[in-house]
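Our platform keeps sequence and structure together, in a single record for each protein. Such a record has a labelled line for the sequence and another for the backbone structure tokens. The tokens are whole numbers drawn from a learned vocabulary of local backbone shapes. The remainder of this section carries one protein's record, kept here as part of the documentation:
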Amino acid sequence: MNKDLLRSFIGKTVKIDRGGHESSTGFILGANKSHFAVYNEHDGILYYQYFHIKSLTEYPRKDSDLSLEELEQYEYKDADDFTELLHSAKHQWVKINRGGHEKLEGILEDANHDYVTIITHDEVIHLATFHIRSISFGEKYESVSEESNSSSTRAVRRKRK
């Protein structure tokens, strides 16, 4: 997967990978040099590194895509590369990888091209940046439905209290 391909899917509903812990279905919010951002109701905004993505499935239903106006309501970190993205989230709560043995949650203490340092409970964990498939930052967002002009509903994000 690469930036040019992913940019053609911005605002569209896609499924990332075919199954497993890292599989996710959501809207592509943006695509940068080394990673892209996806929003889904369950996980909020996720950031994936391109080289870990095996497949991308497009859902051709137009009613599931976002308009440019709707797309602008989702705020995501627009960093040039993955290391810059990580660095911008220092001292924030992060969730790395979605599940299985490689799932990790904690405070991002440090980040560079080679590794990240996560503090969780009574451990200090150093993880190779290469092995981060996906990451999300801060509080999880939950969805609420709002009535639109066309009488259809669309999920909108808000912070949990």
